[in-house]
């Protein structure tokens, strides 16, 4: 092949690539119509949910303008936010925004778009004091908070309570739930509509202090059903059954007819069943973690490893933590599940994260898990 031929091929490929890529530009404005400088803008392909990919942001200039080039043909949702000014991160816009999220379609006859992205109003703030064990008073650093819109519980957001201050949609009734592995949820299900409901104004701060009751003990192995726990094949089949049934329960149809999937935390019986299967459940769960293509499948598989516990869960979780392509959310989930491993096995992996990770949220979680693993109570 001559140099001229090679150059011609490169030029043809470049030309073809340019013909299937466009540009999305626009301005981010607040609830008053004022441009927002320094806002982060994110585009997501419509109807495609990916939970294990790094989120890329584009920042607005002093006039609130942004420009995103080299966007492949397709339909995109455009979201924005500015946490330092009280507007939650773009990735959570569907939960917080009071406005319809703009959609943009790029194609050959419409290669560029110029839009206005509205954000606001500013969020309220839930200030969570350290969640404690009701019996011992000891802080439960593994606790998480879930916020749900009261008028549409399928719209929700979960975060670690160690973040302390969590944004809450303003002028919106929100249901709060605090959960932790091994504890009963707060508030009790029959009190969720009253005790766990708040309505905040923009920038209003609501303090919350919660203690959790320990959950009922996990059944002994003989109480885990008619599963042969000594058969790798039987355990694998049970792992897959529980995994798929849990994800099936998350699928639902919106009033518009659109099919959607919403993360729903597994109840205690599911956790107990996976925990009862023992060490033979680790290979099957690890295979699901590697190969699942179901939405939220990676999150569920990681949590299942935490429910199983033991030294065997460390290698598959370490793979997640060392993979630069895995999302912040998955790494935080993996760190939390490591708490269920023996400290002497889990600590080296957590310490490696502390040495090499660059994301602030992952580092904060790693420091929290390291402190929990090193606590005297675990000695």
Describe what is shown at a glance.
The chain has about 375 residues and is of the alpha+beta class.
* Alpha carbon gyration radius: 23 Å
Total strands: the figure is: 18
* Major beta-sheet overview: 4 strands, antiparallel
Q: Which residues form runs of ≥5 with pLDDT under 50?
A: 3-18, 48-54
| CATH level-two architecture of the largest domain | Alpha Horseshoe
* Number of discrete helical segments: 10
Strand order of the largest sheet: 3-2-5-6
Question: What proportion of the residues is helical, as a percent range?
Answer: 25-40%
Described by the principal axes of the CA atoms, the overall outline is: globular
- The CATH class assignment of the largest domain is Mainly Alpha
Mean pLDDT: 84
CATH topology of the largest domain: Leucine-rich Repeat Variant
- Quaternary state of this entry equals single chain
- The percent range for strand residues is 15-25%
Terminal residue distance? 68 Å
Total discrete domains? 3
Q: What is the H-and-E element order?
A: HEEEEEHEEEEEEEEEEEHEEHHHHHHH
- Helix-and-strand structural type: alpha+beta
């Amino acid at each position: 092949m001559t140099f001229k031929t090679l150059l011609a091929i490169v030029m043809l490929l470049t030309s073809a690539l340019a013909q299937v890529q466009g540009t999305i530009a626009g301005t981010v404005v607040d609830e008053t119509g004022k441009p927002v400088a320094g806002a982060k803008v994110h585009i997501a392909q419509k109807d495609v949910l990916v939970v294990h990919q790094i989120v890329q942001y584009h920042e607005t200039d002093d006039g609130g303008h942004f420009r995103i080039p080299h966007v492949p043909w397709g339909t995109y949702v455009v979201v924005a936010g500015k946490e330092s000014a009280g507007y939650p991160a773009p990735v959570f816009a569907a939960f917080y925004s009071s406005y319809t999220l703009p959609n943009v379609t790029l194609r050959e006859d419409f290669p560029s778009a110029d839009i206005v992205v509205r954000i606001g109003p500013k969020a309220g703030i839930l200030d969570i004091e350290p969640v404690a064990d009701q019996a011992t008073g000891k802080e439960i650093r593994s606790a998480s908070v879930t916020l749900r819109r009261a008028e549409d519980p399928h719209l929700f957001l979960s975060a670690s309570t160690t973040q302390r201050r969590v944004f809450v949609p303003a002028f919106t009734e929100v249901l709060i739930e605090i959960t932790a592995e091994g504890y009963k949820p707060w508030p009790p299900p029959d009190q969720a509509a009253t005790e766990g409901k708040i309505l905040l104004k923009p920038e209003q701060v609501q303090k919350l202090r919660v203690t959790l009751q320990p959950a009922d003990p996990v059944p002994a192995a003989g109480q885990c059903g008619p599963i042969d726990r000594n058969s790798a094949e039987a355990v694998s089949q049970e792992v897959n059954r529980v995994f798929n049934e849990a994800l099936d329960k998350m699928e639902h149809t919106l009033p518009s007819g659109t099919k959607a999937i919403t993360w729903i935390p597994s109840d205690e019986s599911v956790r107990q069943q996976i925990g009862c299967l023992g060490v033979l459940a680790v290979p099957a769960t690890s295979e699901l973690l590697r190969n699942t293509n179901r939405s939220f499948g990676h999150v569920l598989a990681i949590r299942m490893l935490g429910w199983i516990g033991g030294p065997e869960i460390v290698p598959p979780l370490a793979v997640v933590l060392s993979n630069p392509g895995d999302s912040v959310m998955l790494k935080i989930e993996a760190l939390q599940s490591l708490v269920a491993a023996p400290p002497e096995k889990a600590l080296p992996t957590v310490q490696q994260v502390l040495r090499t990770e660059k994301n602030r949220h992952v580092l904060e979680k790693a420091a929290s898990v390291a402190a929990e693993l090193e606590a005297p109570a675990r000695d």
